[in-house]
């Protein structure tokens, strides 16, 4: 298994809890008082505020490069115009979370086994802690956060009624975004703002709302799954001894499937943040800059995630791969796969799961998910997983020959759906909802940072083509 090959230096932090867990039994682990996530954020706020103050004082007029017409006409690619604390995406080496690559994160972040639930992949709670504080949490801290999330995970009855009122034919992402926006009914930030809370304190109810929202996302997503597809635990019962995704997996009917549960943890942890400029993260930040509360801001992010060039791609990839499998059969030759790729391209469509706006190498998230597949016999032997992996070897050559995309390599969406499919979660229109649970653990921490840094409302300058011509022809 992948986890066995990873040297777990995290155990510096996690070992005591392992022993405790073993001694106490998985579901009855209790730890002496440990730092809460809110305490950990409060600790870093003064130094972050000081860092921003110094940057403004010392470098306010320093240039970060020129703006070209191609930037304005090309979706603002490459322009350094956003502050984002949690992660950085390098075009060659991929994503790092506070400086840690995915393999680095797998070495140091606590897993299920570290907190007394079965599983050797990163817990999304661990990633959330890292993204919010820049620090690797101890297993005890993650366990405490898991318990806090379980305690806050139940949906209010008004929200259950709202979700139940959606027609089954409404796309699951539209339902998800609507449900998240409705929780603004209970926003602590909105309530505090209307009472006149001081600007310096904005971050606190923003963090409270963010934790409440992250806690409730699994139950919202599971209720939508149950209503639309009739699968899973109809009442979204929460087990206080389970982690966030252990509970989610149970709610959607996979509680006894260790492989699927651990895959969901890995998938959700590594999809959490992809720096700030992607549509969902940027949207949460933009809407939040108007001081909309975390529910409204994240609901808007989900609507961006629902676009086919962004999160919806993982729904598209699988449909495309299955059509290919139907067309070329289970043991397709390289030549047949090439032909199918060309057929897709010649029909004017993109090859879903390939290309990226920033990356110029295979996506390390794709690599991490592929490695997960290599370590599990049930995935390694799956014909659809094998086909997807074979395509990932052949498509870069075809896309290079085609000559349009700047990055012919697979992105994360090329791998994510086939694993869900193999584990029996075959409802494609639901796949982006799982991505939507994940992106909250990256977008909401930045919203908290925006508030403790006192970031202003976002308001770039736009230009018409006439104004542009007038300026350029001067
Ligand atoms: C991700 C994506 C939206 C990035 O877009 P981008 O930054 O504009 O990408 P590029 O600069 O490389 O695009 C240049 C050209 O290559 C094309 N191209 C990019 N990826 C392609 C792909 N996978 N298949 C075919 N053509 C592709 C673009 O459509 C564009 O064509 P155009 O000049 O006719 O408009 C794009 O690669 C894509 O559509 N991929 C498929 C969908 C997908 O997997 N999305 C998930 C992303 S994580």
UniProtKB/TrEMBL annotation:
GO cellular component: mitochondrial matrix
Principal subcellular localization: mitochondrion
Family annotation (InterPro entries): Citrate_synth-like_lrg_a-sub (IPR016142), Citrate_synth-like_sm_a-sub (IPR016143), Citrate_synthase (IPR002020), Citrate_synthase_AS (IPR019810), Citrate_synthase_sf (IPR036969)
Molecular functions (GO terms): acyltransferase activity, acyl groups converted into alkyl on transfer
Pfam families, A to Z: Citrate_synt
PANTHER family reported for this sequence: CITRATE SYNTHASE, CITRATE SYNTHASE 3, MITOCHONDRIAL
Source taxon at top rank: Eukaryota
PROSITE patterns: CITRATE_SYNTHASE
Keyword Transferase: yes
Compartment list: Mitochondrion
Keyword Transferase listed: yes
Source organism of the structure: Pseudozyma flocculosa
Keywords for the protein's UniProt record, in alphabetical order: Mitochondrion, Transferase, Transit peptide
Family: Belongs to the citrate synthase family.
UniProt GO BP: carbohydrate metabolic process; tricarboxylic acid cycle
Protein name: Citrate synthase
